[in-house]
Amino acid sequence: MKATVFGSSGFIGRNLAAHLRDIGYxxxxxxxxxxxxxxxNLGHVFYCIGMTGNFRDRPLATVEAHAGLLARLLERxxxxxxxxxxxxxxxxxxxxxxxxxDTPIQVRPSADTTYDLSKLLGEALxxxxxxxxVKVIRLSNVYGPDQxxxxxxxxxxxxxxxxGHAVIREAPDSSKDYVSISDVxxxxxxxxxxxxxxxxxxxxxxxxxxxxxxxxxxxxxxxxTFAPGGACRTFPAINITRLxxxxxxxxxxxxxxxxxxxxxxxxxxxxSEAHT
Length: 276
Known about the structure:
Elements: E1 2-6, H1 11-22, E2 26-28, H2 32-35, E3 44-47, H3 59-76, E4 81-87, H4 114-128, E5 134-139, E6 141-143, H5 152-163, E7 165-168, E8 175-176, E9 178-180, H6 181-194, E10 199-202, E11 208-209, H7 210-219, E12 223-226, H8 241-247, H9 254-274
Parallel strand pairs: 1-2, 1-3, 3-4, 4-5, 5-10, 6-9, 7-12
Antiparallel strand pairs: 8-11
Helix pairs in contact: 1-6, 3-4, 5-9, 7-9
């Protein structure tokens, strides 16, 4: 079996490539330049290229990563299947009953929604091809042992592992949906091979409040406090019924996994200090 992972230097792409190799795939990990001029049959393609927290400062690069480069690849590439990783951020303005995959999505154009709109454009490009093998996976906040420290959870875990304490600057009732990288890589491969639908939400389906994380941290022997006056930012619960029905998906819990995340971050910090 052959697979091609674009964006393999990032958190999701790196872990996905490793998982595919572990289960017997021959995996190519070309750079971005190769995406503009693909050669031969790429097998099962996973498009992990994207912008994260710096999208507000680099809107043109964001559109290029999420749609421009994608368009050239879809136009020129030969493949067995194609997975485009989108984001559940596109549901930010949705109501509690509006996070089902086929529900129309509302986004107000602004500097803060460049990310959302460019992901939706990428999705539209995929759907414009009448090829059932081209599919979209909308990811929530992905976590794992080597997660980026630029994310809220990555930064929190890093602070807790290094000092045993972290200050959370958002309100205790702020919440996010977190999905494990192990769930992401496993389901992505299964969807590529045999998913019956063209769009999937890949999330836990259960928003986790910051106060819940703080309590789990306390149970693990470290502590969190909240800065006064923090904004309360919440997100609608993501509907994962499609994944549950088709793949019997039972997501991992970030609260259960927090001790292991802290252990991995502490181990990495110790290794880093040993080499400085």
